Amino acid sequence: MAGSSFGQSFVVTTFGESHGSAVGCVVDGCPAGVPLDIEAIAHALERRRPGQTALTSPRRELDQPRILSGVYQGLTLGTPIAISVENTNARAKDYEAWHDRFRPGHADFTWFARFGHRDPRGGGRASARETVGRVAAGAVAEALLAALAARAQRGAPRIVAWTQQIGEIATEIAAPLDRAAVDVSPVRCPDAQASAAMIAAIEAAQRDRDSLGGVVRCVVTDLPPGLGDPVFDKLTGLLAHALASLPAVRGVLFGDGLAAVAMRGSQHNDPFTRSPDGRIATTTNHHGGVLGGISTGMPLRLDVLFKPVATIPQPQQAIGAEGPPAPLTVLGRHDPCVVPRAVPIVEAAVALVLADLSLRQGRL
Amino acid sequence: MAGSSFGQSFVVTTFGESHGSAVGCVVDGCPAGVPLDIEAIAHALERRRPGQTALTSPRRELDQPRILSGVYQGLTLGTPIAISVENTNARAKDYEAWHDRFRPGHADFTWFARFGHRDPRGGGRASARETVGRVAAGAVAEALLAALAARAQRGAPRIVAWTQQIGEIATEIAAPLDRAAVDVSPVRCPDAQASAAMIAAIEAAQRDRDSLGGVVRCVVTDLPPGLGDPVFDKLTGLLAHALASLPAVRGVLFGDGLAAVAMRGSQHNDPFTRSPDGRIATTTNHHGGVLGGISTGMPLRLDVLFKPVATIPQPQQAIGAEGPPAPLTVLGRHDPCVVPRAVPIVEAAVALVLADLSLRQGRL
Amino acid sequence: MAGSSFGQSFVVTTFGESHGSAVGCVVDGCPAGVPLDIEAIAHALERRRPGQTALTSPRRELDQPRILSGVYQGLTLGTPIAISVENTNARAKDYEAWHDRFRPGHADFTWFARFGHRDPRGGGRASARETVGRVAAGAVAEALLAALAARAQRGAPRIVAWTQQIGEIATEIAAPLDRAAVDVSPVRCPDAQASAAMIAAIEAAQRDRDSLGGVVRCVVTDLPPGLGDPVFDKLTGLLAHALASLPAVRGVLFGDGLAAVAMRGSQHNDPFTRSPDGRIATTTNHHGGVLGGISTGMPLRLDVLFKPVATIPQPQQAIGAEGPPAPLTVLGRHDPCVVPRAVPIVEAAVALVLADLSLRQGRL
Amino acid sequence: MAGSSFGQSFVVTTFGESHGSAVGCVVDGCPAGVPLDIEAIAHALERRRPGQTALTSPRRELDQPRILSGVYQGLTLGTPIAISVENTNARAKDYEAWHDRFRPGHADFTWFARFGHRDPRGGGRASARETVGRVAAGAVAEALLAALAARAQRGAPRIVAWTQQIGEIATEIAAPLDRAAVDVSPVRCPDAQASAAMIAAIEAAQRDRDSLGGVVRCVVTDLPPGLGDPVFDKLTGLLAHALASLPAVRGVLFGDGLAAVAMRGSQHNDPFTRSPDGRIATTTNHHGGVLGGISTGMPLRLDVLFKPVATIPQPQQAIGAEGPPAPLTVLGRHDPCVVPRAVPIVEAAVALVLADLSLRQGRL
Q1: Which residues of chain B have a CB within 8 Å of the CB of A291?
Q2: For chain C, what percent of residues have pLDDT higher than 70?
Q3: ipTM of this complex prediction, to 2 decimal places
């Protein structure tokens, strides 16, 4: 496979540039008979869509998905599911001013080094707009997970992510009940006090013509034990791959993450116990639901670190393929902080991994 | 591919259980004509070998590699390179006492959930002994990287990792010159003061029948710009996959990692400049050598987080497939801290990714 | 990868059902900077399009390709190339009469057995309409082959297929000069006498409400030696895969094919010689351009066998999921002989293999 | 994947050169709990082993397999199964005489063109000795098929191949009952009269210092309907790939093969019926068990065409990298006809495909 595909059995290929005709995905390997509602896909895209609040990019895309193949009368056919979303609001002109300059913190230079050209129409495929395909595919993955769980007569894994930190404002809350509880906050932080502080921090950064990063935490409950395909395709390995390949990600942590490093084994080892219904569980969850790269059945917990947005409307030292560096001020429609919009993208990436591993292991 | 292979063009498959006949790897896709010395492989294995100091596992394996195929008169043939290492010192009897119990913090339960059986001979393939195959393949990868660089008449990428933190003892040092400078320290921390403190910490943990985790930092210099295959197989995506699939890893961080999260864009964006020899560079390196998932030519920098070793010789609450939890004391030959031995393993994982991407991009 | 993708480095994924919204493909792995003209794709689709003569299906599709991504200002971007072709003339009603019956010689029963459902709108993805995606991708592959050859300052491989046999009418001609010479004949047989006989045979079959099969021969000239990736991905292995997966194919033969079986080694071995320009060649070409699964530089020659079209407008014994067999007469718009339209499809399949192998071997 | 691996879920990687240390395979993806007897592997290797009769190569290898990993107490562990067979009887000296010449009909020149070097120790990996790994893996595949069938409480697919033609001597017999019935004949043709004629033909060729080709037919009974993964990984596509990548293969035909080409649809379409036990069947089997690339449940039938052996002990026109062509007489230990030994190799290739598709489709 080339670099735009992910998965072995549930294989997602995304396509599309930020300012081309369309973006989208092809999902190959989804079994037949999975109920798939285009509204579920549209809803997922709506959650990642820019232009929703003053805090995010004013670029407005309706992001209406179109299913080109693979679904008939609301059920998957077992054939490739192609989903396309038109780029209706691309304004390439915005970018002309610096089409021969490499912007600091951006992929302009590295894509030039890799491909020998620059797409002068904006970030091209390095743009976060590429994640439209991942989110649409993630909605298919969630439909599959629901169908597999229904067949096995158990509850489907529930994937819920939220904003854990923006800039220096962090929270420590228990996992929210569901996505609706997360979406109550404009920054998707279901801790009212932290949410307000995060909003203030973003507004302050915006006033300063600056930007912020942050952390998205994701928890998956009702995940059965036994998911993971050692040694390379451990659950941790595949999740790290799917998440670290998202735009602007600087790290992925599992369970207690950095705190685990400073613990002793006697603190970090979670004692085993048996739950009231007879299942094996642990009394604590430092391990975050994964041991030896395979799910334990305890809630899966991970953190995804995002750097501050590279585009800031203030002069910075840029450079071209030739010539000396010189100050450049980048304009355009960009989020001062991508973290709230990254929440559904993280959920989608996690769903892709869980769907792929579920199929690989024959859990039909 | 199933879960024991990694890579698209430089494809590594590892095989072997901790207490089976042999461990090893097959490397497929390495071009013909690469000088490959079995001594280089033996040296790499020697660096990860247990039993070297009082601080590591007393299990003694000579770990002599045997090349079964793919190399003739010191040159690769372009055919699969199979490397096998016999397990000469497996003591399955050590494990019999708890072969029907799932040890806390170990993969016993999850492998049972995944595969429906337990290898009573110890960790089986969940054991860190599996990394013998990765390290041998990493030595092949480094030979390939050297050959590719020689053909292109540039210096080969230099991959150097070291112990950055053990338990609560951390250091902040500049990247060491080479691996010899790292190996001076018994814990592979090239900061004499921190090294001494780490040794003391490990000895204290050992006295307390406990264990420690830590952080391995890795830096790659002389990496050309343009390496990475978006969107899923970005350099960050593949590195995270290779590293998070190592035993005991709890996280992977790129560049400034957690610190980046709290920065503003104006701090984190590295200004572009032109180096004296005309190449494009940045004046700082917060980005750690990767922008948009593609190498920039600046030093690649990443951190790998390891949890404390699960095996501790004190009573812990274990459980079996049936019955209530009960205290268990696990004996055996285990490291109180794997971090020093993880250093060459991290280097190998990084080398696998760089070799694969180099071939995929046709940099022959 | 799941079953709708082909290739390792030049990866083609096709999508679409015969009577869904659209058919098409995504090509991932094509390097940047390849000149790609949408007219070339349109022309390739035009050659496989039904409705051109009285001898082929009266279904009329304009088959206008739309490039959704991966191309900008006539050059590939190095990103996935998504191409979509709308299904404008699907007449699902035609099929309603036998939506609960399995037609003899068709894939109705086997797709039901595989996927647990039937697409009542015709052959679904088992229809030859699926090959639209392969032909579009084949045009991209040919553009890549041309670009690679231009960079290497040699002539591009010339892939020319033609109708070698229809029903019992066979010809033995030298390879035609180019596709234009082939397209002169309505049945794509560049032997005027055989062509006339083939047309008569098809008309006779049509009168008898029956159908015919045939053989497509393909020759590739100017293919450099050294193409093939043993042991599984030999040139023969990949070509056989690409060709035997086409609809209605019953066999693939290389070089002298069936005749080779009855030869002795002394007859079949082609003596080596040196061509006037110094290259190594053979004085005869029984081997058809491949030895040991790798191209020799001599013309590649292969035959693809097609069974007679399954759809015939006369009563046949069909069956449903339940109940006894019963006669069924299938109506619809179908070719009495697919062989002429298969010619560009075979060329496309061959182009996909050559493009993939060229990239895998780093012949940039 | 690189070229020495085959399969998506049941992934086989073979390794080893004809005159290196060892040949073998790694099978990744085989589920845990499959009974696997080393005797079954040894028996399969024994059937392909040279040196059994005067009709085959006098090279004598004991071909004792050693299982390095993945099996414990007679059951698979779900981890990679590495199998190694030592090369004990390699006589590289035999080859020294022509190490700088390319033998006609051999892969010497093409491997040189591909890899830029020659393995002077004989055919290297182009030698049929490479198929040791395929045959060992085939034995694992058959063990898996048996285990899957047992779990599903049905009979396992029975794969039986035999010699259908040698040189100009062909037979037309019904599928033999089992492999024992085939092995009665020294040329593996279970038609006593044809067998005798084939033996005479081989002896005549041997006397003439010449060689013969032939056809292996393979039939699989008790194969359930529904196996195949369209559109590229149809059962036909994968079988063609596995078979056409075997040494010396010149073609693969399904069902009626070449005869189908000259039939009309009304002759070739097999009428559907219902078998006494209620299953859907066809009254004839022109289609050879595959429709639309998916198994029908009728016996799978295919022919594999082998060219005459390239090595013949008489002068032929060879060439070197430099210089003019000149006569060369090749000595060594080679079969005058490989077809009898190809029988178990064809069976193994078919088993690999069936095992892979069975796992891919979740038929656990």
Answers
A1: 105-107, 109-110
A2: 91
A3: 0.96
Number of Cβ within 10 Å of residue A331's Cβ equals 11
Residue in chain B lying closest to C31 (CA): B361
Please report where in the chains the tokens 């079969």 appear, as a residue. Answer: D335
Lowest mean pLDDT: which of A283-297, C50-64, C66-80?
Answer: C50-64
| For range A313-320, the mean pLDDT | 92
Per-residue confidence (pLDDT) for residue C177, from 0 to 100: 84
Chain B residue closest in CA terms to A127: B292
Whether the Cβ atoms of residue D1 and residue B8 lie closer than 8 Å to each other: yes
Predicted local distance difference test score (pLDDT) of residue B55 = 63
**Chain C interface disruption, residue of A79, A115, A364, most C CBs within 10 A:** A79
* C-alpha C284, offset from chain centre: 27
Whether residue B110 contacts residue A228, with contact meaning beta carbons closer than 8 Å, is answered with yes
Write out the E strands in A73-118: 75-77, 81-86
Q: Which residues of B touch A360 (CB under 8 A)?
A: 3
How much is the pLDDT for C333? 63
pLDDT digits (tens, 9 = 90+) for D169-219: 999 898 888 999 999 999 999 999 999 999 999 999 999 999 999 999 999
Which residue type occupies B319? I
Match 């259980």 to its residue by tokens.
Answer: B17
The domains of chain C, with CATH numbers, are: 5-360 (3.60.150.10)
- D10 DSSP 8-state letter: S
Of C110, C125, C233, the CB nearest to D3: C233
Chains interfacing with B (3 or more CB pairs < 8 Å):
A, C, D
CB atoms within 10 A of CB A94: 16
Residues pairing with C327 in the sheet: C317
Confidence band, pLDDT 50/70/90 cuts, at residue B363: very low
Question: Do you find a cis peptide bond into D309, omega within 30 degrees of 0?
Answer: no
CA pair distance B152, D45, nearest whole angstrom: 45
User: CB burial class (10 A; 0-12, 13-18, 19+) of residue D327?
Assistant: exposed
Report pLDDT for B117: 79
A interface mutation test: which of C26, C129, C132 has the most A CBs within 10 A? C26
Residue type at C306 in one-letter notation: F
At B177 the pLDDT is 84
State residue C259's pLDDT score. Answer: 96
Look-up: residue for tokens 């112990």?
B163
B225 touches chain A (CB under 8 A): yes
Query: Got the DSSP string for A200-225?
Result: HHHHHHHHTT--B-EEEEEEEESPPT
Q: Roughly how many angstroms between the first and final C-alpha of chain D, as a whole number?
A: 25
Report whether pLDDT(D93) > 60: no
| Window from B57-71, B202-216, C211-225 with minimum mean pLDDT | B57-71
B163-190 as b/e, with b when 16 or more CB fall inside 10 Å? bbbbbebbbeeebbeebeebbebbbbbb
- Residue B81, strand partner residues: B27
pLDDT tens, position by position, B87-136? 986 555 555 667 788 999 999 999 999 998 776 665 689 888 999 999 99
Q: Quote the Cα angle for A30-A31-A34, to 5°.
A: 95
Q: Across chain B, how many H-helices and E-strands are there?
A: 9, 19
> Using alpha carbons only, how large is chain B's radius of gyration in Å?
21
Contact C319, C101 (CB under 8 A): yes
Q: What pLDDT sits at residue C363?
A: 43
Helix B235-244, helix B339-360: angle, nearest 10: 140
**Which residues are bridge partners to D273 per DSSP?**
D281
Alpha-carbon span A148 to A177, nearest angstrom: 22
* Radius of gyration in angstroms for the set of CA atoms belonging to chain C, rounded to a whole number: 21
Q: Which of B297, B30, B300 has its CA nearest to residue B144?
A: B30
SS3 A113: helix
